[in-house]
Design goal:
Layout: H1 3-10, H2 13-25, E1 45-50, H3 55-63, H4 65-70, E2 75-80, H5 84-93, E3 98-102, H6 103-111, E4 116-125, E5 128-132, E6 148-151, H7 156-167, E7 176-179, H8 182-190, E8 196-200, H9 203-211, E9 214-217, E10 226-231, H10 232-237, H11 239-258, H12 260-271, H13 275-284, E11 286-287, H14 296-311, H15 318-327, H16 332-335
Parallel strand pairs: 1-2, 6-7, 6-8
Antiparallel strand pairs: 3-10, 4-10, 4-11, 5-8, 5-9
Length: 344
C-alpha cells in the first residue's frame, strides 16, 4: 500500500478537520502547515515506553515498525519503565504519551487524578509471586509474620503481597515492608538484606533459576493484567498516532505467536537474562493471546483490588476508586485496530 494512502487511512476525523482548518487559514510561503508536525501526522513527536514486563513493547522497539511507518516526519522516542510506578510517574509528568503498567497501577493512578486511559490489554501474566531465599525457613505466607519484605509500592507485586498476607490473616502491620524498586528488591533478597521479596518477572525468574530463590506463594488471580495506557491529551490531540500505536501492538501480538523463539531472544537481550529464563517468563507465565479490549474480566479483578487502595491509605475514598474504574477504559482504538496497516 502506498505510504500516503496508508497514512490517510490512519487519520481520524478530528485530525483530518484540524488539517483542513490549517489549509483554510493559510500556509507559509514554503508550503509548510501551521501544525506542530508540519507533515501528514498530527505531531512530529511520539514518546512511549518499553519495559521488560511488557514483551510486546520490546518486540515493537526491536523491529522498528513505528519508525518505519513514521519516517522522518515523526521522531519516536523510547523510554524504559523500570516498574508500573515509574511508567505512571512519566505519564503524569507528560514525559511519555503511552506507558505500560499493571492494571492495579493504572487504576491507582487514575483514582489519584492522573488523566490516563487504558487503551489496550497487552497480556495476562502470572508475573508476581512471593519469593524467599533458597535456604530460608519461610515456606508459606503465615511464616511472614514479623518478616522484612521488599516490595515496590504502587505495583502489582505490592498489591499481590497485601492480598497474599490476608490469606493468612496478616496485614501490612504484621510485616516490615522495604519500598524498593523491583531490581533492588531482587538484590536485597539475594544478599540477605530482606527475608522475602514480592517479586516481578523476568527478575523473579532469573533469581529462581540462577540463584535458587523459591517462589513459595503464587496466585494468578492476584495479578491484574498488563495495561497499555495513554494520556488523555495525547488521545485527544493525536488520534492518528494513538491508532498507529494500537495497530502496531496488535501486529506485535501476531508476530510473537508466529515467532516464539525470536520473541524469547528479544526479551533475553532486553532484560539481560538467559534464554532459558526468558522462555520461562514468556512461554510459561505470560498469555499474550488475550482479548486486547479492556472490559469485564479486567474490571472484575480491579473491583477486588480497588478497596485495598483505601484500606492502606493510597486513595482517600472508595468513591475515587469507583469513579476511576468507571472512566478508565477506552476501547475505541482496539475496536478500529488493524495490524495489516503496519508494514513490515
Amino acid at each position: 500500500m502506498p505510504r500516503a494512502l496508508h497514512r490517510s487511512r490512519l487519520l481520524a476525523p478530528v485530525a483530518t478537520i484540524a488539517l483542513l482548518t490549517a489549509c483554510v487559514a493559510g500556509e507559509g510561503s514554503d508550503g509548510s502547515g501551521s501544525g506542530s508536525g508540519g507533515g501528514e501526522w498530527s505531531d512530529d513527536r511520539l514518546t512511549l515506553d518499553f519495559a521488560t514486563y511488557n514483551p510486546l513493547s520490546l518486540i515493537i522497539k526491536d523491529q522498528g515498525w513505528l519508525e518505519a511507518e513514521l519516517g522522518d516526519d515523526v521522531e519516536v522516542t523510547w523510554t524504559q519503565s523500570a516498574g508500573s510506578n515509574k511508567a505512571n510517574e512519566a505519564l503524569r509528568a507528560g514525559a511519555i504519551d503511552v506507558g505500560s503498567t499493571a492494571g492495579s497501577a493504572a487504576l491507582l493512578a487514575r483514582a489519584n487524578g492522573s488523566p490516563i486511559k487504558t487503551v489496550l490489554v497487552y497480556s495476562q501474566p502470572d508475573w508476581a509471586a512471593l519469593v524467599a531465599p533458597k535456604d530460608s525457613d519461610i515456606d508459606e505466607v503465615a511464616d511472614l509474620d514479623g518478616a522484612s519484605i521488599a516490595a515496590t509500592r504502587g505495583t502489582d507485586p505490592y498489591f499481590f503481597l497485601v492480598q497474599a498476607l490476608a490469606t493468612a490473616g496478616l496485614d501490612l502491620d504484621d510485616v516490615e515492608v522495604q519500598n524498593l524498586q523491583h531490581a533492588d528488591g531482587k538484590t536485597a533478597l539475594e544478599n540477605g538484606s530482606v527475608d522475602a521479596w514480592a517479586g516481578l518477572d523476568p527478575l523473579m525468574a532469573d533469581s529462581e533459576l540462577n540463584n535458587g530463590s523459591r517462589l513459595f506463594y503464587r496466585n494468578v488471580d492476584f495479578n491484574t493484567y498488563g495495561f497499555l495506557n495513554a494520556t488523555e491529551d495525547f488521545l485527544a490531540d493525536n488520534p492518528d498516532l494513538a491508532q498507529l500505536v494500537v495497530d502496531t501492538y496488535e501486529k506485535a501480538r501476531e508476530w510473537a505467536a508466529d515467532h516464539p523463539d525470536e520473541a524469547v531472544a528479544i526479551l533475553a537481550e532486553a532484560a539481560g537474562i538467559d534464554d532459558d529464563v526468558a522462555r520461562t517468563v514468556l512461554l510459561d507465565r505470560t498469555r499474550l493471546d488475550v482479548d486486547p479490549a479492556p472490559g469485564s474480566a479486567q474490571k472484575d479483578v480491579l473491583e477486588t483490588v480497588g478497596p485495598i487502595f483505601v484500606d492502606i491509605g493510597d486513595v482517600r475514598e472508595q468513591s475515587q476508586v469507583d469513579d476511576a474504574l468507571d472512566s478508565l477504559f477506552d476501547t475505541s482504538l482496539v475496536a478500529d485496530a488493524d495490524p495489516s496497516r503496519v508494514g513490515d
